[in-house]
Amino acid sequence: MSTAAQTDTAHAAGTNYLNATKGLKSWIFTLDHKRIGIMYLISILLFFLVGGLLALGVRAHLFSPEGATGMSNDTYNQAFTLHGAIMTFLFIVPSIPASIGNFFLPLMLGAKDVAFPKLNLASYHLYFLGALFFIATIVFTGLDTGWTFYAPFSTDRAMNGVILATSGAFILGFSSILTGVNFIVTIHKLRAPGLTWRRLPLFVWSLYATSIIYVLATPVVGITLLLLIIERAFGVGIFDPALGGDPVLFQHFFWFYSHPVVYVMILPAFGVISELVTIHSRKHIFGYNAIAVSSIAIAFIGFLVWGHHMFVSGQSGLSAAVFSFLTFLVAVPTAIKVFSWVATMYKGSIVYNTPMLYTFSFLFLFSIGGLTGLFLGALATDVHLHDTYFVVAHFHYVMMGSVFIGFLGAIHHWWPKMTGRMYNETLGRIACGLVFVGFNVTFFTQFVLGTQGMPRRYATYHEVGDIEPQLLEMFTLLHQISTIGSFIMAAGLFLILFYLLASVFKGDKAPDNPWGGLSLEWATASPPIEHNFEGQPVVRRGPYEFPEIDPMIK
Amino acid sequence: MSADSNHNQGHGEHHVMPLSTYFAVFGALLVLTGITVLVSFLKLGLLVAVVIASIKAALVVGYFMHLKYDDRFYSVILLSSLFAIFCFFLFVFLDFTSRGMVVPEEETNFLRNERAMIERLEQEEAAAAAAAEEEEEEEAEEDTGG
Amino acid sequence: MSTAHAHGGHHHPFHAHHFETLPQQEASARMGMWLFLGQELLFFSAVFVAFFVFQYMYPEGFLEAHRTLSIPLGTLNTLVLLTSSLTMALAVRNAQLGDNKGVVKQLGFTIALATVFMIVKYFEYSGKIEKGQLPGQWYTYEGLPEGASIFFTMYFVMTGLHGLHIVIGIGVLAWILIRATKNQFSAEYYAPVENVGLYWHLVDLIWIFLFPFLYLIE
Questions:
Q1: CB atoms within 10 A of CB A540
Q2: Regions of chain C short of the pLDDT cut 70
Q3: Is any Cβ of chain A less than 8 angstroms from the Cβ of C18?
Q4: Among A2, A188, A236, whose Cβ lies nearest the Cβ of C153?
Q5: Closest alpha carbon within chain A to C50
Q6: What is the pLDDT of residue B1?
Q7: pLDDT for B133
Q8: How many domains is chain A partitioned into structurally?
């Protein structure tokens, strides 16, 4: 590292990546992976706020059977569509990998940057461009297809926002692909000396599996959306049966991407939990190899099971049965992970701090989310539960209860490293409790709603079929509980926003290694210097070989 | 720096293939193109064309793209994408070729629901039409009554 | 670390600071390109899947419609692209040997052949537009069974996407050609030539499959 030595000596004392250069331009055109990660983090959370407010609007509307907010049905359709589309394409797909992953991957590898810093910046710029398309959709036209853009509704009768929004999603796809390519090459080529594959932090393994899916699945949704745009713009028949196309083909195309991408969302959260559970239990991870390999296994199994989203779409009975059977394969690697995390905590010296509380929340919520997935993966029960609130509850338990909780855990765990400041621990625990309670109140009720037959996506429910007054009363009560829960959760989230922002200005200075972690990101300053490390770090042991169950943190 | 750079020395030495290899591969590609065109007139179908195209592709990938002499990991990338493509074809065609095999197509939920919906819409329309007629009659009665 | 010291004070102008050695940087670039190619394969696989699904749905329409395509023009274009693949491979070989002049010459041939390909495509397209063998609602050609319009939809989508890749390819080939005229490549630094080459071979590969599926199979 002769170059490293030269540039590192140029660092004045006290400079870090945040204050090394100044001005807006030094951020927008930066090649520093840490700054790109921070820009992603801010943008992603901004869109989470937009999507979240839309969700609160939806929940508020459902407070009474006839609709409590006075939204028209069309407005309601747009609200839940944009909630889904923004949360999926702008928030959850890039969430952990693009923000936390971008920031910490090179740090964990002991590298100075990702392999292709310019591509990394391009990926952020593409994200920004794609986001502009979505903003244009909201401002100028509107979108009412649901986030899945199902044909022929989307090619034919839906609002004009389809072309804008799908173009946006198409561009966001490129952003994902570039991130995926970048991460895989970085992990292969830029590991520090001594950092063998079996010494990689598990978060890196999960990013590796995620990147495989980014690279192999995203192009298919690109072409799908492109075909949809062509069809809608030029009246060409590909998916519309009236023009000789096939709508089920659209669903095949769409879910070939969108199912693997479910694992893009959850795998990084798995990685985060693997880190958190071992560091905050001060114990060597149980089943390192099993966790690492199961991540890769999930990535590949993800390509075999997309048809379970299409059980009632009109696909053949045989393929529905085959997909249903294959779906249960996913349970194996997933269960291996959950088992390993629980086993890691056994006889550990668990610290009940904010990141660990998020880990507990994750384990609890993910178990519920995963187990309710079995009902939906089983062909027979799915036919009954399809398109009810049971599905809504299930995927919110997995997407929000697991991915987002994992994301919050990651933010709290690595916040001291990213900003160099400590947040208020008491407020952190209170907020975590609020989010956990609010989340369960919001979504557990929806499992009940779903099994009782409440269909999803309805703006009002006072005339669902020939609804009996007794059932209507129950629906109303459950919807009201759910809405109240969503506001409790929102309160918790705003509290988090408040104390995290406050910590940037008034927080205590964070030590370099507040949790006693052994992976390389803790070996540099908080916040890290511009080129990550003074000189080239060398790795001599695994990331979780804690010398003892550590009494240091109490 | 990385463990990979050890088994990646092929690049450092940048294996230069002799010109004759390039021309031999090119010749083979031309011959195979000729065969595939000629065979198409014999109407031997998909399989022969796919096999010939795959051989051509293998030649281009192996020699022109140097995969034969490069890092094994590039082959892994190629095989992974072929695996994904294989799954893609397999399951899409499993669906399209087995429609109606297990459950007769008109008995599927999808079509049953659709039929039920069409029926309901028709009933609603009929009811609406009847109501409109009644109203008209009432109006007519009112007119005469008034 | 010892390899880094072997460089001494000398640094290649295109050696980025976050790579320890130039070969490491070159190998990374190539790995990135292969991953990108994997992505491209999946991208095209979707249109192939759609093509075969529609062929399965409308066997007669597809058979009759594909007979209207010109096999001689298709074969000509296949030969043109195969030859361009050869010249591209030779350009990479010249780059490996550090012969920038040879790179320029072979890239010149490649670009010329790519242009020929697009010209032939232009004649094929204009013939179809004249006859009204067009996608969807623009389809006005008569005398073909049901499904023929979908065939032409797929024909234009597949060859159009492929053609788009050729046009982009001409652009990057020109960029590499300009860099070669500035003598920027050497035996130790030629990854850009090689990566553009990999991309160009992929375009060729796609055509190797497109040609029999669209023009030949009965």
A1: 9
A2: 1-10, 218
A3: yes
A4: A236
A5: A249
A6: 41
A7: 85
A8: 1
Q: For residues B117 and B145, what is the distance between their CA atoms, to the nearest angstrom? A: 41
The identity of residue A352, as a single letter, is Y
Q: Is B80 in Cβ contact with C34 (below 8 Å)?
A: no
Residue A16 is assigned to a structural domain of this protein: no
Q: How far apart are CA C10 and CA C12, in angstroms?
A: 7
State yes or no: pLDDT of B10 exceeds 60. Answer: no
- Sign of the four-CA dihedral A145, A149, A151, A156: positive
Asked if C145 is an interface residue toward chain A (Cβ–Cβ < 8 A), one would say no
pLDDT band, residue B145 (cuts 50/70/90): low
pLDDT grade for B78, boundaries at 50, 70 and 90: very high
Across the interface, of B1, B43, B53, the residue whose CB is closest to C212 is B53
What is the dihedral sign for C-alpha A200, A202, A204, A207? positive
Residue with more model confidence, A330 or B40: A330
Closest approach of A24 to chain B, Cα-based (Å)? 34
CATH number, position C119: 1.20.120.80
The minimal CB distance from B88 to the residues C45, C75, C82 is found for C45
pLDDT of the residue at B108: 67
Neighbours of B129 (CB within 10 A): 10
Determine whether the interchain pair A189/B5 forms a contact, defined as Cβ–Cβ distance below 8 Å.
yes
- Min Cα distance A154 → chain C (Å) is 17
R_g of chain C computed on alpha carbons: 21
Q: Higher model confidence: residue B28 or residue A13?
A: B28
User: Which residue intervals of A378-421 are DSSP H helices?
Assistant: 379-385, 389-398, 405-419
B143 part of a folded domain = yes
Question: What's the domain count of chain B?
Answer: 1
Which subunits have 3 or more CB–CB pairs within 8 Å of chain B? A, C
In a domain, C7, yes or no: no
Q: CB–CB of B88 and C86 under 8 A?
A: no
Give a yes or no: residue C103 inside a domain.
yes
pLDDT confidence of residue A156: 78
Instruction: Report residues of chain A scoring pLDDT below 50.
Output: 1-11, 552-554
Residues A527 and A504 sit within 8 Å (Cβ to Cβ): no
Q: Which of A300, A304, A312 sits opposite B109 (nearest CB)?
A: A312
* C-alpha to C-alpha distance for A200 and A188, rounded to whole angstroms: 11
Query: Does a structural domain hold residue A530?
Result: no
Range of the domain at B117: 105-146
In a domain, C83, yes or no: yes
Average per-residue pLDDT in chain C? 89
Does residue B9 register a pLDDT over 70?
Answer: no
Domain residues for the domain of C118 are 21-216
Q: Which of C78, C217, C201, C83 is nearest to C151 (CA)?
A: C217
B57 min Cα distance to partner chain A (Å): 20
To the nearest whole Å, the CA of A257 is away from the closest chain C CA by: 11
Count A/B contacts: CB-CB distance under 8 Å: 77
| CB nearest C96 (choices: B2, B16, B52) | B16
Chain A nearest-CA distance from C116, in A, is 27
For residues B64-93, average pLDDT? 93
At A498-548, the pLDDT tens digits run: 999 999 999 999 999 999 889 999 999 989 998 899 888 999 888 888 876
> Is A364 a member of any domain?
yes
Helix, strand and coil content of chain A, in percent to the nearest 5, comes to 70, 0, 30
Task: Look at residue B53 in the predicted model and tell me its pLDDT.
Answer: 93
How much is the ipTM here? Answer: 0.91
The confidence score (pLDDT) of residue A10 equals: 43
Looking at residue A313, what is its pLDDT? 85
In a domain, C86, yes or no: yes
**Structurally, how many domains does chain C consist of?**
1
On whether any CB of chain A is under 8 Å from the CB of B101, the answer is yes
User: Which chains touch A (3+ CB pairs under 8 A)?
Assistant: B, C
Q: Which chain C residue's Cα is nearest to B57? A: C205
Q: List the one residue out of C169, C189, C203 whose CA is nearest residue C27.
A: C189
